[in-house]
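Its record is retained below.
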Amino acid sequence: DALLEQTEAAFDVAIIDYQMPEMDGLQLTETLRQHPLYDQLPILILSSATVDDERHQADICLLKPVRQTLLFKRLAKLLLSFDAVKAPMLEKVLPQFNAHILLVEDNVINQKVAGTFLRKLGVTLDIAEQGKAGLEAINEQDYDLVFMDCHMPIMDGYEATQEIRAWEKQNNLPEIPIVAMTANALAEDKAKCLQAGMSDYLAKPLHQQNLVDMLEHWLPKSSSQAAITINLANKSIENKRGADFNNILSYAKSLELDESFYQQLIIEFYHQEFQCGQKLQQFLDKKELKAARELVHRVKGTAGNLRFQQVFKTAEILEKLLRQAAEMSAITHALNVFIAELDKVLTAIMALPMVSFETTMDTTASNDDSLESLMLQLNKQLSNQSWHAKQTIINIQQVLSDSDLLNVAQLLEQAINQLDYAQATLYFNQCQLLLSQELERDAA
């Protein structure tokens, strides 16, 4: 708990005893390796017996009692080798896959994080916002693999998977690999996914390497292409508001995301969750534990993907108590702890430089709802990869009359909904060309 409560790496090495109650040294090491601040932390384990588990993630294991000179030599070797590699990488080699992937996920922030990870791997990606839309997409196109969120409105991932498997059986089709994505990491949750017909299971928060592992495991070998080298250098944002801002943006580096893009994600998180505490209290006052649990689950998944570790951890505790319908005093205490951690993050987000904060918000909006004004707004929103583009393209379609323009505008809307801003920009340019041609015809 002491390590996970840190907001920045404050240790050079961890020395961990193997035999401990509740969580042994190997389990603790595995937990630390999942934390973005400690995934590269040098770890030395001390044990009174030989550690036979070859899967352990410690760097060095020593038998107790250990001589002081041996401990000194091993620590020196560990720290010197670590210092040689802990300088930040400017490049990373990523495998590439020639595959058509469907991501079924209702949360826009999670769509963007997972979508960014997957597109870096060279795949063609489609996004469906809930299970029913995922079913429709699979009926219309062939996919090599599906990443399926479990908890979604209208139709959740379990029901969607069962429908897909029934459709495949009815039409004598091979099973598409379906990988569950959920913020629940319990054994019974994994079993529920497999019983629903899912092929594999991926716990949130998401990591780029975990997605690579899934693609390598489930896609045919012929899908693999030559790896590429990407530049990890972040374009820094000037800090004008103190240390909390630095702590927040340090998570962008652990996700290997551009800081400006990550900043947009966390501002979306702010707008999505700033009333979370108030809503939860209202649910509890009305004894609506299921609604409260669903809201906490959503925040937990998003916070995990954005690397807000303490929000994720306290949400996990609160969700468990709500699922168990525990004593209200215990739920209230857990709620207060969760809200306190969430408020810390929201306060840090509010401390972002005001210019950047305003830029990411919809400063392109205008009272002028003419087509020309809407197109200008959309152009800026696409450049900023702003989520407000979704509403603007809907407004544009309402004032269009030309059928060709409407067809392209619908394709543009689809690209925006799939967060494919490069393709959306191409359709936007096509719309502009058609509009220019229409104006020329009117002038003639």
